[in-house]
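Retro notes (design track)

What went well: tokenization of the new backbones is finally stable.
What didn't: we kept losing track of which sequence belonged to which structure.
Fix going forward: every design gets posted as structure first, then sequence, in one message. First example under the new rule, 191 residues:
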């Protein structure tokens, strides 16, 4: 089915995904190959194929289920599903879109609180320097999640092995990188 012939409900997630990211959820015909190959589908509340179906219905109730799911936060972007999909749908891209949209709308799964803290801390670290600054990431994650004591016993051995640095390394093209962040946030409708 050609995406050019499909009329989407105005403002639906499926329409936004197609317009903003060229994600072709409408092509999914529920073969289930993505769910069968996903290494974490057993821990998900909805396997990837069901997420696709929820989005396809273009019903607000089902869209909210997809946005509130744990699935999107458990997805590790391994791309196994995308390589198995006969319709060549970018399923990890769909998961990424749903993660960002759920944050924008404030519809997130309470069980994903710590994963979301890590996600935000990771992005902040990249935004500030263009590279991952591990010590900054850990500090921000602990403040956000209040998991102050977690894994603290690993710090001395990581320091002695040079895995943690005290000074962040800033990339040369930081301005270009910031404009990518700006464009992406604009596309997603964030202020
Ligand atoms: S990219 Fe995500 S949804 Fe796809 S197989 Fe990997 S973990 Fe599962
Ligand atoms: S593999 Fe592709 S077509 Fe099959 S259910 Fe998953 S997304 Fe749909």
């Amino acid at each position: 089915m050609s995406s050019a012939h499909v009329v989407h409900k105005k403002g639906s997630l499926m329409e936004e995904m197609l317009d903003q990211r060229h994600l072709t959820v409408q092509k999914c015909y529920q073969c289930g190959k993505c769910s069968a190959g996903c290494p974490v589908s057993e821990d998900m509340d909805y396997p990837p194929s069901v997420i696709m179906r929820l989005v396809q219905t273009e019903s607000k109730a089902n869209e909210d289920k997809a946005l509130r799911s744990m699935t999107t936060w458990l997805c590790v972007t391994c791309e196994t599903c995308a390589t198995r999909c006969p319709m060549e749908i970018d399923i990890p891209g769909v998961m990424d879109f749903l993660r960002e949209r759920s944050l924008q709308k404030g519809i997130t799964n309470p069980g994903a609180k710590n994963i979301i803290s890590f996600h935000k801390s990771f992005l902040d670290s990249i935004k500030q320097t263009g590279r991952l600054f591990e010590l900054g990431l850990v500090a921000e994650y602990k403040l956000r999640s209040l998991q102050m004591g977690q894994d603290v016993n690993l710090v001395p051995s990581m320091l002695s092995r040079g895995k943690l640095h005290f000074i962040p390394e800033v990339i040369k093209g930081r301005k270009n990188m910031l404009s990518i962040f700006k464009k992406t946030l604009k596309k997603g409708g964030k202020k």
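Added context from the reviewer: Residues 28-34, 49, 52, 84-87, 89, 91 surround iron/sulfur cluster (ligand 2) (CB under 6 Å).
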